Amino acid sequence: MPELPEVETVVRTLEALITGCSFNDVHIHTPSIINHNESFVSLVINRPLQSFKRRGKYILLGLDESTLVIHLRMEGRFFINHEFSRPNKHVHVSFKLNDGRVLHYQDTRKFGRMLITQDVNHTLSHLGLEFDDPHFTVEYLFGALKNKKTTLKAFLLSQSIICGLGNIYTDEVCFRARLHPEKNVGTLTMNEVKAIHREIKLVLSEAIALGGSSIRTYTNAMGIDGLFQLQLQVHMRAKQPCIACGHLIEKTSVANRGTYICKHCQKR
Fold it and tell me: Is 2 considered catalytic here?
């Protein structure tokens, strides 16, 4: 968390708020957040923000010939004020905009990372297809699953075949496809793969339209809550009745992640 829909919302919000701006100065309060720290500032300042994109769970800010790549990890978020001084101990990078405002990166756990690259495709070459990529077909997914010996949830979380899914949306996809997250992907039938493919596209599209899910500490770039958490059918609903059958939702662990399932609807 945040996952693809939340990152997409952050990118759209940043584009609306700072498009056309440039960074006049940068304060790096926590050097561990920055990869290749020695060249970071010189490659960022006085470069116009030309594009705002997302790849998987990564934010991509285009700066002339370079790209600022940002991964929010667990609790990273942005906010804007007019003070270049560090507003609190959880702010780790501050970008001074040419219009006098300051974009602050805050991260309670310090897990987020930033780097500058001139070859973003190489930097993110480990990522699989986007859910809305025309090459992400049922046939592509079925071929990727073939002969694999891993659980469905671990496969969906891996990012190497389809990128952007995290714990929340993987739970939702498995439930809506009526498949147990511990099912061995090598045993999936074509109809089951069709269901997974359909629900990945539907769940992520719906979540993006609703601004993502605001759960625990996550809000979008300006502190605005998403609404998809109101549509969650299984995740975070332990001991509540299943919307499909009425049996109680259970919380367990799959792929070392807290996982919500209905054992009646999602039989192993």
Answer: yes
